[in-house]
Amino acid sequence: MKTAIITQIITKDEQRNEIRESLDSAWYDFAARYGIRIMPISYKQRPQEFDFGLLILSGGNSLNSVENSDSNHLRDVFEKSLLDYAIKNKIPVLAICRGMQVVNEYFGGTLKKVDGHVRVNHFIKINNLELIVNSYHGYAVDKLGEGLKIDAVYEGVIEAVSSNDGLIKCIMWHPERTTHQDLYIETVI
């Protein structure tokens, strides 16, 4: 069974002066569907502490470049360091929503505000696959990062990209919020 480390949403509780990390429990159902074991990783940990064969950059939070906050900055720095480690060690990466935005910025890309992509489902075509996907994002890729290629677009918005070597798959939809298999992401899992 493949083990994946997965990043979490970071929030700051001002009243308690605490930094909290959380992960939607739906990720455990997702992992069961694909026969992988997920281990949430804290921003306080380092990837060298784990034996894993997949990095999942989960959704949630905005990037600091579009919504400046301590939590967003903390998560950006942490996830980019994880991505750096995965690339150097040739570990596959699955980047979900915010994760795709992190990957794009890591490779020098930029983001833009988009409308009509929050709490909706829409159709996309990737290679020979046709999928109905969910959408929960207010930002999308504007300038594509170097070394990435576009795999799917919906109404002018980039919905999926991958690295030229195929080790990184990025999607703007949330597969953990569905109950069906996703043939596109199976190529990296």
Description:
The chain is α/β, with parallel strands linked by helices. Helix content is 20%, strand content 37%. It has helices at 26-34, 70-88, 98-106, and strands spanning 2-6, 9-13, 18-22, 36-40, 54-57, 93-96, 111-113, 118-126, 129-136, 139-141, 148-154, 157-163, 168-171. A seven-stranded mixed β-sheet has the order 4-1-5-6-13-12-11. A hairpin with a 2-residue loop joins β8 (118-126) and β9 (129-136). α2 packs across α3. The model has no long low-confidence stretch (mean pLDDT 92).
TL;DR of this structure?
The chain is of the alpha/beta class and 189 residues long.
Distance between the termini: 11 Å
Structural class: alpha/beta
What is the makeup of the main sheet? 7 strands, mixed
Order of helices and strands: EEEHEEHEHEEEEEEE
Question: Which bin fits the share of residues in helices?
Answer: 10-25%
The global form is globular
Low-confidence stretches: none
Question: What would you report as the Rg, rounded to the nearest angstrom?
Answer: 16 Å
Report mean pLDDT, rounded to a whole number.
92
Strand fraction equals 35-45%
The strand line-up of the biggest sheet is 4-1-5-6-13-12-11
What is the total tally of β strands? 13
Q: How many individual helices?
A: 3
